[in-house]
Design goal:
- The chain contains 14 helices and 17 strands.
- The chain is an alpha/beta fold.
- The protein folds into three domains: 103 residues, CBS-domain; 130 residues, CBS-domain; 97 residues, Double Stranded RNA Binding Domain, CATH 3.30.160.100.
- It has a four-stranded mixed beta sheet.
- Helix 5 crosses helix 11 and helix 13 packs parallel to helix 14.
């Protein structure tokens, strides 16, 4: 179905708005992300990006936000689900003529799935879709340690354990509130005025002990019901008191994600963190591989390894290393440069020249 049926209002901010003010906006609206309109493109800034910023007073949102794929009103829910699942995003902008008209959220998609499950005989249990053996954090560790894990592993939920037993959960939203100016969270909330000192407290002092949980044999509909009724973006899966897994919006939304089917086994490693750059790299590599397949029908496999060689401010220097295997031999290509799209275009041109030269010799 088209995403326009799931559209809701979005939050647009200025590229010069301080992160401290954005934090206030996210807290007041109980939101996870905001959008920035940048010269015909749209960047997204979410809570996980914010907790990775070194200074919320001086860091500009355009430096920590990422250009993301856009939807239009006629984009289908499957496309939105695929992008959200692959890039760990909760919201995508719906854009018309370069301007954000609204957004489609993972929460709305989960609600849609839940409604479709009513009266449905589909047999999916929590154990079928959960992420098993999730990362956890000891209750005596610091909030700063929890923040480091979330930034490094790109996650938003950390179950808190004490002697191996679940005692609470800490989220990226909890940490963002700790980073907020004192007047925003209230001095009485944890009794510490300085943000750096707040990050030094034990996780147990910030974690929520009212954890949303269920059993491994709970139905998908039951999981959705629990998350929606509690306004939660997660559900911990347990057997007795032992944590078995975690289900987040991403795990549920992934059920609707469109698969990109190709008749050539293609592998691409090291995709950039920026979703738009990653989508562009995948698309260009797929097109190049299809072209090579027309020339060499015996191609069995194509691999591309993208390596980040250097970062200079906002610029990034990449190396692409490509190997195409066929029954008659292998084709390899390597190039280095600052523009990832240009590197793939140069590879396309070089491989076409190589094929043309080979055909000329054969003639």
């Amino acid at each position: 179905m088209p995403v326009e049926g799931l559209m809701e209002p979005s939050i647009i901010i200025s590229k010069d708005e301080p992160l401290s003010k954005i934090i206030s906006t996210l807290i007041e609206t109980d939101s996870y992300d905001v959008f920035i309109e940048l010269s015909g493109k749209v960047a997204a800034l979410n809570i996980r990006d914010i907790i990775g910023a070194k200074d919320i007073k001086t860091t500009r949102p355009s430096l920590v936000g990422k250009i993301i794929p856009e939807l239009n009103r006629k984009s289908v829910v499957g496309e939105a689900a695929r992008i959200m699942s692959h890039y760990r995003m909760r919201t995508l902008p719906v854009v018309q003529n370069g301007q954000v008209e609204g957004q489609v959220s993972a929460r709305r998609i989960v609600d849609l799935i839940n409604k479709q499950l009513v009266g449905n005989k589909l047999k999916i249990n929590a154990s079928n879709i959960m992420t098993g053996d999730p990362l956890v954090i000891d209750s005596h560790k610091t909030v700063s340690a929890a923040m480091s894990i979330m930034k490094r592993r790109r996650i938003d939920h950390l179950p808190v354990v004490d002697n191996g037993l679940l005692v609470g959960i800490i989220t990226s939203s909890d940490i963002m509130k700790v980073m907020s100016p004192t007047e925003r969270i209230g001095k009485k909330s944890i009794g510490i005025n300085n943000a750096e000192d707040r990050l030094s407290i034990e996780v147990s002092g910030l974690a929520n002990d009212d954890v949303i949980t269920t059993s491994v044999d709970e139905s998908l509909q039951g999981v959705c019901d629990r998350m929606i009724s509690a306004g939660s973006s997660y559900c911990i899966i347990k057997v007795w008191d032992e944590i078995q897994g975690i289900i987040t919006y991403r795990d549920i939304v992934a059920l609707l994600g469109e698969k990109i089917e190709e008749d050539i086994p293609m592998f691409i490693v090291g995709l950039p963190d920026e979703p738009l750059d990653a989508e562009l790299a995948k698309s260009k590599f797929a097109n190049i591989t299809k072209f090579m397949r027309r020339i060499h029908p015996d191609i069995e496999q194509a691999r591309c390894h993208i390596k980040l060689r250097r970062v200079l401010g906002s610029r990034k220097r990449y190396e692409i290393d490509v190997h195409v295997r066929s029954t008659h031999g292998n084709i390899s290509y390597t190039n280095v440069g600052w523009d990832l799209a240009k590197l793939f275009d140069e590879m396309n041109h070089a491989l076409k020249k190589r094929v043309a030269h080979k055909n000329k010799i054969n003639l």
